[in-house]
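G., the chain you wanted modeled:
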Amino acid sequence: MTAPVLVSQSPSLIGIAWNAPHDGGMPIDSYEVFWDGLNPGSSAFTSLAVVESETLHYTTSSVVAGTNYRFQVSASNLVGDSVASP
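Predicted structure as tokens:
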């Protein structure tokens, strides 16, 4: 799975996208998105959302301008859960 990339942003919106990983022969059911938004720059990622497509547009009031946030994504299907993206 590729690392998520920023596709849009505003003071209250973050949009990210990623490429689907190899699916092991079964359709991907969902993606879980994680971020370090509770402690920016740390290695502690928390679950942010579960989505069914390769994009997330997340609206929040907790984004602080000038702060770098990191995201990870993992995929899930009948084969199991993927390793989280870089």
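DSSP finds no helices and seven strands in the chain.

Shout if anything looks off.
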